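I am writing to request your help with a piece of structural work I have in hand. Thank you for your consideration; the sequence and its tokens are set out here:
=====
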Amino acid sequence: MAFVLALVASCVLTPLVRSVAFAQGFVARTGGRHIHAGRIPRIGGIALAVGWGLALVAFLPLSSLGTQALEQSRMQFLGILAGALLLCAIGAVDDIRGLRVHQKLAAQVGVAVLAYACGVRVEAILLPFVGVLSMGVFALPVTVLWVVGITNAVNLIDGLDGLAAGVSLFAAVTGLVVAVQNGSLLIALSLSALTGVLVGFLFYNWNPARVFMGDSGSYFLGYVLATTSLAGAVQQKASTAVSLLIPMVALGLPIFDTLFSMLRRFLERRPIFSPDQGHIHHRLLELGLTHRRAVVVLYGVSIAFACCAVLMAFGGGWGNGGALLIATLVLLGLMRQAGYFDYLHRRGRVDARIYDGLTERLRRALPEVLESLRASDDERDVFRVVRRTIGDTGCSAIELRAQGETIHRFEASAVEAVGSIRRAFPLGPDAIARAHVEFVWHVDDGEPSVQASILLQLVADGFASALRRCDSALSPATALEPVRSEHPAPAAVALPGNIR
């Protein structure tokens, strides 16, 4: 009955809220991160919250089952109901007028504290191979972290038509099954009503959507899913930890997307709350999937996670292990298909290239090398600077070449390398360069980075300027002097030490 009442309420209220939103201009903007087209109302979450609340309030007094559940957990019921409606109202204000990040976060923390005060809290956590760990004084911060985290996870997954509603529906069904199995009447009734409003809302939210839930809907859904996963286990502390693990698996998709978004923004040195188009649904669209197909794929992932969560609820130790293994494999498959491994690999290569040893040595040595070249009075002084540069660059040798022949070679060691990597740079602009400088590394040292190559080009430009100032035969030609292919190779200058 709770499901039916909520379904009817959602089907009636959603078009009503949609009409009000059009009349008042509460529609989603297009462009930027938003991929929809046209004017679409964005306060559909109000219909979700009001329909859910009406179904519960109307059903509880009329049923002995509802009355019994209310008598057992009156404060928990009030905490869930009041907190859900409050967060929906806060989200609606954000949808209509806009709120700053710290304002929304403060409101979420305040509502989470209200839930804790009403008895919806994390009393203990079950750690593998350890047992039940009582939270004690940490019960409040852990509860706030859980409620705020799940609320924002559902908010972040709300990027495609029907995605957040569908993912929340599968999580609600999972919680409903677990609540029925555990005999948690209040949670079963709450999630039955939540399932009803979501089914009704999806008629209007499926692609192409006629209404969006907005922050009012995602905050409401996240809060209800987070608190109902805690409220049903308050009577037995040990079960609190078990019921936490189950919703974590059931909500694996939004939780993973949130954690990876935070990691991605950290690696990119951006604020972790900054918006972007790097979420899992955006990546699927970039792979060429249509809007609907991307949602269906993520529905499939959510169903797999939901099945794993139900298996954990009914299975023993082997069931839990098997469910976690399956959920992990599904997650790894999703990461591979969406290109997350490629992204991490690229980030790792970028970070390595920015901070590799050669680049750092060149960055530190470049000012002194260029200053020494500017102070050089003749060709011999320039060559001495080139010789010192070998140690600064980590090269095995530096060669000055003209007309395909090696004119000078400066070596760090008399031992000839089996394999080598070379980078050549002209001494002056290509059109007037008579020679070029080649930096040589042992093949075991690896390829120089792009940043290192840019710094080496600056070194080569410094060589060219110094040689021109000394009127060297290797210096670039003047603008009026053409470079002739038959230009004779200049004689090698004999220098002491390991210079040929």
Summary: The chain has two domains: 2-351, 374-469. The beta strands are 27-28, 40-41, 124-127, 131-134, 397-402, 405-411, 420-426, 436-442. Residues 233-242, 414-418, 483-500 have pLDDT under 50 and may be disordered. The CA atoms of residues 140 and 475 lie 73 Å apart.
